[in-house]
């Protein structure tokens, strides 16, 4: 059972929201539709989604409004423009939207120069027969559909973060089994270089080896994943992120990957995920959650099972999921960190935040 504990200040405005402590991956019945659930205490994003769905908009439209609010607010610097620079100092956008009625998906990945990730994903779903567009061609598509741009997605904050990283010899990074020619890139496979020639050293090789837990944390890797059940009982999910900080250019995480960062099926329920996307996408945890619920698992057990499948193979991974069934029962599970997710339902006066312990 979820029990009320303390009141936390809203990080977006000077309002208060209830904090619930969910022990043992407990589940909560939210009551009647509509319902909005999001990873993390992204309160303003959930409020935006709630205003949309409570006014009668569809689940898909409401998810877009909620995630778009988070992009505009640059939630935690990991959603929208101005955060998470890659190795070249550039910020790119990944986003996804999925309709649980039709099972249609629109997504963009490594999108440059366009800040409206979730709206671009919606346009892919509305105006193409594809599921995912990537890179600069995703930008060309989004601009041709009328989204504003081209825009420099970097900010003074992201460029300062990148400059400090360069000064720290490009550490930490996502390379492995390589040697840098200098203190940073270009990198080469270690077996292709002669360590006796003095170009590189074993010390430099060791500098490129980092545990994954040092690369993934609350403020460099927290995707917004949102699920909405509208007044008709229809379900949709959406995600948006600017990816992993100091990622190798061209890297795409789990944010735009159907079944990994999010999944929805009107007949069953939905799931949203956050964490180490490079690991999590190998397991499609949200697809797993929904399929486990299809087989009769309650949300709390489905969430815990999906996370435990990853943890058995990667004990040091960091990640979390929330699960909701079609009746509005919701729960979360996590590994490697304490996870929070936000909920708004008709019985609530405002967004409520639930905390899940690993």
Features:
single chain; 358 residues; alpha+beta; 26% strand; disordered N terminus
Tell me what the structure shows.
Mean pLDDT is 87; it is low at 1-25 and 195-210. This protein has 358 residues and is of the alpha+beta class. 27% of the residues lie in helices and 26% in strands. The protein starts with a strand and ends with a strand. It contains nine helices and 17 strands. Helix 1 (43-54) runs antiparallel to helix 2 and helix 2 (59-73) runs antiparallel to helix 3 (117-127). The strands form three sheets. Strands 1-2-17-16-4-10-11-5-6-7 form a ten-stranded mixed β-sheet. It has helices spanning 43-54, 59-73, 117-127, 135-144, 156-167, 202-207, 277-280, 285-294, 299-313, and strands spanning 3-9, 16-22, 27-29, 35-39, 93-99, 105-111, 132-134, 178-180, 187-189, 224-229, 235-241, 262-265, 269-275, 319-325, 329-335, 339-344, 352-356.
